[in-house]
Design a protein that fits this description.
Helix content of chain A: under 10%
Order of helices and strands of chain A: EEEEEEEEEEE
Largest interface: A-B, 19 and 22 residues
Number of strands of chain B: 11
Strand content of chain A: over 45%
Number of strands of chain A: 11
Number of helices of chain A: 0
Shape of chain A: globular
Radius of gyration of chain A: 13 Å
Radius of gyration of chain B: 13 Å
Helix content of chain B: under 10%
Structural class of chain B: mainly beta
Structural class of chain A: mainly beta
Oligomer: heterodimer
């Protein structure tokens, strides 16, 4: 089934640990995004990639890094997790930069203790 | 700063009509989007407006007034499955989406 796959679905993590959230899409979309969603707030963009080999910072990039080695994969890494990074993380893709129809993965619920 | 405002929560009755409003102040405008998000699930695209007026898609319609910085999503013939959060998002001059916090719609029988 075409779409976006995120892993893990849920994770509890000790503060200070390193964590990578995985995201893979099979729609050959050029643009990919990582958002975090917190209660009472809108989706906030962490990092994005308009095409393979390029990445950019979003609204809340501190503490996170990404890479885009190929079209399909866009992992998000927390180098040293802190409790304020407890959130639901959504990976999304779109056909191109500026296309507002985003396709989202099912989300990764991360709890940092 | 950039801002998207929508009501936090609304309640409506099955079979009725509900209008969810969204007002925005953004740096530039390249379209307004509505997404639906059921609890515990991913957002899914509903509609897109870039020109003033009404866009109709089945039971759902979306309206835009760029001069007023205003949009609404109209849901007709409400069904229990319409219980969800509805997210308003605006694409700014940098082609980045700015998201509202969402409106939780509760449908009662």
């Amino acid at each position: 089934i075409a779409g976006i796959t995120q892993a893990p679905t849920s994770q509890i993590l000790a503060a200070g640990r390193r964590m990578t959230l995985r995201c893979t899409q099979d729609m050959r979309h050029n643009a990919m995004y990582w958002y975090r969603q917190d209660l009472g707030l809108g989706l906030r963009l962490i990092h994005y990639s308009n095409t393979a080999g390029t990445t950019g910072k979003g609204e809340v990039p501190d503490g996170y890094s990404v890479s885009r080695a190929n079209t399909d994969d866009f992992p998000l890494t927390l180098a040293s997790a802190v409790p304020s990074q407890t959130s639901v993380y959504f990976c999304a893709s779109s056909d191109s930069q500026g296309a507002g129809e985003l396709f989202f993965g099912e989300g990764s619920r991360l709890t940092v203790l | 700063g950039q801002n998207i405002d929508q009501p936090t929560e609304m309640t409506a009755t099955e079979g009725a009509i509900v209008q969810i409003n969204c007002t925005y102040q953004t740096s530039g405008f390249n379209g307004l989007f509505w997404y639906q998000q059921h609890a515990g699930e991913a957002p899914t695209f509903l509609s897109y407006n870039v020109l003033d007026g009404l866009e109709e898609k089945g039971r759902f319609s979306s309206f835009l007034s760029r001069s007023k910085g205003y949009s609404y999503l109209l849901l007709k013939e409400l069904q229990m499955k319409d219980s969800a959060s509805y997210l308003c998002a605006v694409m700014d001059s940098n082609y980045q989406l700015i998201w509202g916090a969402g409106t939780k719609l509760i449908i009662k029988p």
